[in-house]
């Protein structure tokens, strides 16, 4: 590269003073010639803002008036940020010094690459892939997301098996590297999602617009995970089930939508019954509530989606079978076993 493009590392914070205190030193130690750090505060009620002003006066702070969630918070914040690339970085992520340059070089090598993600490893078990994205996100034909290194709750050890930079379906919102021009072109995230799977929806729309998403395992970060909503939180369950069906309704071609959505309704009811039989009454209620949440969106909030311009170009990172079948029936636990 003759000239290094600008990169804005934007951290959305909500009551995350402890994480900022713990992980900002690693972000500040990033070795890249042209980057800035911005913290967008989602109306925190702790001392996050005063902590930043006292200890990191060089970091720009964007104060939002209310908690707009992940989707709305980033949409509002990024309207105020000017840079060639954005990195949407969770506050509970420790980065390595050289994490930015490989992603910049990858994106600069091919203008059709709109976004990518680093390899996400677990902060607490640094030899394991982390739940939120592993080494790049995939999706099955029924809309269930998984990733290279993480299928359902099974996180693999990192033995270098997914170290090749290659196309994926979605890049994790925990550390999403994206061209600012593409983010703005597609109007960013869908605010209605609030949190969870909004990055998958955006990446799907990015592919429909003719761009590609890549993994960049040469860049490495370590993610705590569950920092805002713990994995077993019923609100998280509700948002995941609701948003996943909204995403399918928005992005599937109508021929597939006609049969996949009814099937997903049935499978979600099966999931609710399974949770009930396991004694997880709260999760069961959240899944049932998510069905009503989907129909509420469909009748009152649905927006016209953009017409795809990629023609018949196949989507990358799409498993044309059922991940549920592979994992639970055929007992295949790793990405490499499933995607051959």
Based on the model shown, name its key terms.
340 residues; alpha/beta
Description:
Strands 1, 2, 3, 4, 5, 6, 11, 12 and 13 form a 9-stranded mixed beta sheet that branches. The chain has a 3-stranded mixed beta sheet with strand order 8-7-14, with no helix packed on it. Strands 9-10 form a two-stranded antiparallel ribbon. The chain starts with 6 loop residues before the first strand and ends with a helix. The mean pLDDT is 95. By secondary structure, the chain is an alpha/beta fold. It is 38% helix and 20% strand.
What's the alpha carbon Rg, rounded to whole Å? 19 Å
Overall geometry comes to globular
The average pLDDT is 95
Instruction: Look at the helices and sheets and give the structural class.
Output: alpha/beta
Tally of contiguous helical segments:
11
Percent range of helical residues: 25-40%
Percent range for β-strand residues: 15-25%
Describe this structure in a few short sentences.
The chain is α/β, with parallel strands linked by helices and 340 residues long.
How is the secondary structure organized here?
Elements: E1 7-13, H1 17-28, E2 35-41, H2 48-55, E3 60-63, H3 69-78, E4 85-89, E5 93-95, H4 100-109, E6 113-122, E7 137-140, E8 145-147, E9 150-151, E10 154-155, E11 167-168, E12 175-179, H5 180-185, H6 198-208, E13 212-223, H7 234-251, H8 254-277, H9 281-300, E14 318-319, H10 323-329, H11 335-338
Parallel strand pairs: 1-2, 1-4, 2-3, 6-13, 7-14
Antiparallel strand pairs: 4-12, 5-13, 6-12, 7-8, 9-10, 11-13
Helix pairs in contact: 1-2, 6-7, 7-8, 7-9, 8-9
